[in-house]
Amino acid sequence: MKVLIVSTAERTGGGAIAARRLMDALNKNGVQARMLVRDRQTDSPHVFRHGNIVPKVLERIDLMARLRLPLSDTWPYDTGSFGTDILGTREYQESDIIHLHWINQGMLSLKQLGQMAMDGKRIVWTLHDEWPFSGIKHYGGDIGTDTDIEDTARFHRLDDKVSRLKKEIYSSCNIHFVGCSKWITGLARKAMPGNDCTHINNCIPHDVFHPMDRQEVRRKLNLPPDRKIVMFCSQKVTDTRKGMKYLDEALQRLPDVCTVRLGAGGTYVSDEATMAMMYAAADCFVTPSLQDNLPNTIAEAMSCGTPCVGFDAGGIPEMIHHLQDGYVARYRDAGDLAQGIGYILQHPGFSHAAASSAIHDYSESRTAREYIRIYEK
């Protein structure tokens, strides 16, 4: 069985990271899996680069014109109007299964998706956000964006047009959708009642992300050995969906903790081994997201034995088992978020439970087997 995983990037973004990890897990479990990407970040012999950024640029220009928005306000949206032609590649032609992941920003167009279906290819599509079953938005709900474009007729016309096009394509395609969380799987089943949709967790490489001696890794990372350390990530602090204002408010109520911020405005970590050490050095990991699917960061932190705190939103409460291996705070409640952080810091016994949950929930072999069952249908 030959599986081709298609992703815009190899390692940039949560969806790309999950796709690359799945490819590795499949290869470890007897499946010949390769990855086709536009943005290649390693020299892996299983990862192939195809295409360039021209379709991405054309998509942004098209959105700016259609919605009359500045470039900075177009990023929450994609139309799928432009893409890289992968049908002529050797990797595509030799594959039995085409497994799509996050393919936006000019990697694959909806027209090409329809052509793939006409080829008779078996298609599996892992849902890393809501775009595959919505219109042009990657996430719905009432979170809001940096613009009020949702209130304009231009937005609704374009959103409805793209949504109808997707439904037409899916009605003639044999696509099996996979949701990384039960939350997004439920949304997809409601939006696409005529398509198969299964829930399968992402996997984590436990040979990299595993518990370590906390004092030893703190010494290596030059972190204070006798302080309570709270860690969080912030790749885009201006994204309302990430809920950073609630975390800032919560941390103001906890003046005695030492905070470590990874990403924008903080420490940049380029390799997984160092990232794992950062998790293992912390007493608590916090994600204040108001809307998220199955955050890799929570799974990674728990795998390192670091309990997590997050809001009751999206797939987060599926990952954190409240008062068993972490703390699930009331939605948008900064006070309860602070209370959860404080509770975890006062109860160090959660570490073992967090690691045990992660080993079970994000196993490479288990995830690979569940996907193989879908491939073989």
Description:
The model has no long low-confidence stretch (mean pLDDT 93). Helix 1 packs across helix 14, helix 7 (214-221) crosses helix 9 and helix 8 crosses helix 12 (334-346). The two termini are 12 Å apart. The protein has helices at residues 14-28, 54-67, 90-94, 110-118, 153-171, 182-191, 214-221, 244-252, 272-281, 296-303, 316-319, 334-346, 350-361, 364-375; strands at residues 2-9, 32-39, 47-49, 97-100, 122-127, 175-179, 196-199, 229-234, 258-263, 284-287, 308-311, 326-329. With 377 residues, it is of the alpha/beta class. It folds into 2 domains: 2-203 and 363-375, Rossmann fold, CATH 3.40.50.2000; 214-361, Rossmann fold. The radius of gyration is 21 Å and the shape is globular. The strands form 2 sheets. It has a 7-stranded parallel beta sheet with strand order 3-2-1-4-5-6-7. A 5-stranded parallel beta sheet has the order 9-8-10-11-12, with helices on both faces. The protein has 14 helices and 12 strands.
